[in-house]
């Protein structure tokens, strides 16, 4: 990909080319960075790229490089210049994030000093990702004591280039553009950023590389959520600004489609499957999968029980027809009767409760895993963030799967994205969007039998999970005390389930994934 993009760029008579942060390895390689063979092979591949591009303009490649000192971490997070067939000067990252999904201090040594590359008569200050996220005039509270961009401009940098791997979250691009535009205006120099695109595990990267003029305006922006080569003239402040849609629903849709597609491709799955219940969550997951993989590569498995309404079955069939995906029908009524017979003696005299409900979910989970194993398809889970938060999901049941597609989407956002999707053409049946949510594990069951209304629940969860507010702080905002304390208790006691969940595609500021580091055992 690097060589292909570089060849395309050099045809446009560029002076310098740059990849995103750690582009040669993918962000973040995590403990692969502890593997000396992995680091060595990356160095060998970098040398091969240099030889292959020996006749082109210089290229900055994001890659980890060894720290030659005998103190500190063994690696630098670097931008390495290749030119004339040779691997040349390396520029290192100064600020190493250790919050949310980041853990760079585990692997890298921070660099102290000013790094300027003279190219085409311009002193270009080289920075890497986090180095631009510490402007004292933009942030109310800074994470670091030093500001690499201030140091670069003080040393005479006439423009700033930033190699970045900035993970996607909803509305982050607008924040990023405001921040970089402010920085360019503050220092009176052009600022260019080249950002990673694609998905690695739970992290999604939206691309949207860009360049900002000394007056703060953006004058170049690459396409979002797809590979692109952006050419910008930092002297004349000219370039092409790709059209974009910054509405939350559009961003989330594009991010999740990319997340599913890349996860399947990079783990070598060509097809996916999921359980179709007739509910909104599985419907949205199926629609995302169809867009990501192609409808012919998606299988929806319908597993009705005696409690499944005919409407839910019909909705599943209509959804599959609208999306063009394949279906499989596996009724579980007979299997439920077998379980009841086996457990009749040990459960004698005891009332039916959540145990029997969970058995249904686990029957379905086993069937889905069997189909996944037999056909080599990736099983997608369909639970949303609201359910994951309060534990309304079943271990070894509906939590079975290799990727949790919408587990960072609150329930109300699931509806918003679904309606946005339907504006593009036939998709999710209207009856699915309007009926009361239900797991259909007992007669006439609805989610609101045991949960607050989803709009209230989602607001409480957003304050607690994403803004880290305590019960007292949330109650002070006017929410019912009993409801708040019950919801937060449910969040707390469901932690053991989340530890066993499939990777969650991250789209909000705090997802139940790499950046969620809550203990199971807590004294409160």
Helix % is: 25-40%
What is the typical, i.e. mean, pLDDT?
95
Give the domain tally.
2
Contiguous uncertain segments of 5+ residues: none
Number of separate helices: 16
Beta-strand proportion: 15-25%
Main structural class:
alpha/beta
Task: Describe the fold and architecture.
The protein is of the alpha/beta class. It has two domains: about 1-245, Nitrilase/N-carbamoyl-D-aminoacid amidohydrolase (4-Layer Sandwich); about 250-450, Rossmann fold (3-Layer(aba) Sandwich), CATH 3.40.50.620. Helices cover about 35% and strands about 15% of the residues. It has helices at about 1-10, 35-50, 150-155, 170-185, 250-265, 280-295, 310-325, 335-345, 355-375, 385-390, 410-420, 430-435, 455-465, 470-475, 480-495, 495-500, and strands at about 15-20, 60-65, 75-85, 85-90, 115-120, 120-130, 160-165, 190-195, 195-200, 205, 210, 220, 230-235, 240, 270-275, 300, 325-330, 380, 405. The longest helix is centred in the C-terminal third of the chain and has 22 residues, at about 355-375. The two termini are about 50 Å apart. The relative contact order is 0.08. The mean pLDDT is about 95.
